[in-house]
């Protein structure tokens, strides 16, 4: 009996320590995030809720009052951290845009000459994503701007053969010298296309401007395709550096008068301190704006459920965003992230 109690104490002690570590990682100091594996712990923090419930149940059954109190505290802290991502579905979109999107859900096609667009970002897993499913999703969801990460030259060729240019005839891609590329496809003409924009040590971020010309006036939104370094053994410092480079750009440009959308694989959750430094100067995460949940995007199409929300659509004050959601695409380990955007200067009464 004594050895049994000792085993239970050890088990509960380990579970309790893990619950505390993962729960408190929501508030991990910025400098700690580049310590090996701490970025991964922070990304998985929302799933601690499951471990807390299991630990609480074991503690309650074995009448371990102190452990129950600690788990109750962890549960409250998890609720505080997760709450901003949930609630009544919200949108910044104007009534005119909501009406256009409702019509699109029936039989209308996307119109590059109106004042809104549905956009999509997808990490194609080094060109392994199913090109036909991507084209089908673009068609069915009426996508007008598509950002792709980890493409290859052969993938681009296959995507074009699958018919992407029938829907999105314009594109700009980054340099292919590293083996993989990032790319942006659009329905409307590209303005000021560039194969690289933000100065990043992770990869080249292509960018292009799209003009929204409906309602008797024109506004422009600049789209930047992002792909940062993943946090893994040997690259934790580089992971932090890549995000810091975006935050430095954000501090200079978030309020420079240009409407921006950053979309892609950030390899970080929006709650992590490195990401918050990108958001704080004036960017917002579409998932958080629309209160559509954590939107776990990785991994997918494997034995595990999606565990981390690392793919994002970020907008600054020049852009309204709504209808954020995710879609599975065969062949890649990331979900696609979709949202609807419009220039923030649109007349909401229209």
Automatic annotation (TrEMBL):
SUPFAM superfamilies: DNase I-like (SSF56219)
Residue span, Endonuclease/exonuclease/phosphatase domain: 120-334
Keyword Membrane: yes
GO MF terms held by the record: endonuclease activity
Chain ranges passing through the membrane: 12-29, 41-61, 68-87
InterPro entries attached to this UniProt entry: Endo/exonu/phosph_ase_sf (IPR036691), Endo/exonuclease/phosphatase (IPR005135)
Coiled-coil stretches noted in the UniProt entry, renumbered to this chain: none
Name of protein: Endonuclease
């Amino acid at each position: 009996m004594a050895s049994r109690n000792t085993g239970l104490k050890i088990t509960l002690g380990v579970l309790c320590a893990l619950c505390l570590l993962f729960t408190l990682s929501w508030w991990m100091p910025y400098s700690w995030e580049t310590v090996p594996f701490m970025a991964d712990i922070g990304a998985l923090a929302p799933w601690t809720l499951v471990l807390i419930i299991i630990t609480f149940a074991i503690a309650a059954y074995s009448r371990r009052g102190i452990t129950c109190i600690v788990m109750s505290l962890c549960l409250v802290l998890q609720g505080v951290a997760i709450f901003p991502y949930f609630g009544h579905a919200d949108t910044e979109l104007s009534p005119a845009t909501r009406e256009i999107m409702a019509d699109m859900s029936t039989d209308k096609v996307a119109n590059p000459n109106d004042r809104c667009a549905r956009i999509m970002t997808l990490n194609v897993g080094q060109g392994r994503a199913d090109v036909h499913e991507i084209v089908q999703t673009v068609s069915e969801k009426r996508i007008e701007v598509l950002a792709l990460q980890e493409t290859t030259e052969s993938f681009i060729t296959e995507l074009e053969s699958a018919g992407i240019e029938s829907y999105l005839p314009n594109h700009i891609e980054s340099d292919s010298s590293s083996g993989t590329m990032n790319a942006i496809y659009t329905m409307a003409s590209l303005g000021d296309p560039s194969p690289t924009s933000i100065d990043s040590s992770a990869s080249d971020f292509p960018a292009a401007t799209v003009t929204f010309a409906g309602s008797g006036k024109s506004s422009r939104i600049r789209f930047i395709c992002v792909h940062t370094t993943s946090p893994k053994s040997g690259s934790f410092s580089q992971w932090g550096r890549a995000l810091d480079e975006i935050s430095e750009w954000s501090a200079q440009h978030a309020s420079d008068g240009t409407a921006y959308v950053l979309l892609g694989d950030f390899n970080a959750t929006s709650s992590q301190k490195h990401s918050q430094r990108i958001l704080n100067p004036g960017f917002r995460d579409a998932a958080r704006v629309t209160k559509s949940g954590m939107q776990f995007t990785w991994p997918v199409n494997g034995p595990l459920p999606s565990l981390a929300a690392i793919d994002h659509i970020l907008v600054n004050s020049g852009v309204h965003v709504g209808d954020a959601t995710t879609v599975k695409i065969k062949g890649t380990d990331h979900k696609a992230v979709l949202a609807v955007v419009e220039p923030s200067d649109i007349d909401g009464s229209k």
